[in-house]
Amino acid sequence: MPITVKRLSDGSTYLLEDIDPGSFVNTVKRRIRKEFAPQFKNGCRLLFNGKVMKSRHRLKHYKVEDNGIIEMDDRKNWSSSSSSSSSED
């Protein structure tokens, strides 16, 4: 399924075309970091419908569907204590 990632630091978007709804958030996050790098190294906090997406959950947990938009909050270098930080990968 295709999903769009919107980078909050500059408003740019990136289309991920072949995402499985059963994918873990941390798997999607790693792919985003590789293909659509955040402004800061730890700036990859993902949000969907205003909720922080936790790495251990699957996309279907958040009801992400075809053409859904996930926001990447990369406006700061999130600490390892944040709920969607890189330390959970």
TrEMBL record:
Domain Ubiquitin-like per the UniProt entry, residue ranges: 1-79
InterPro entries reported for this sequence: Ubiquitin-like_dom, Ubiquitin-like_domsf
Pfam families: ubiquitin
Protein name: Ubiquitin-like domain-containing protein
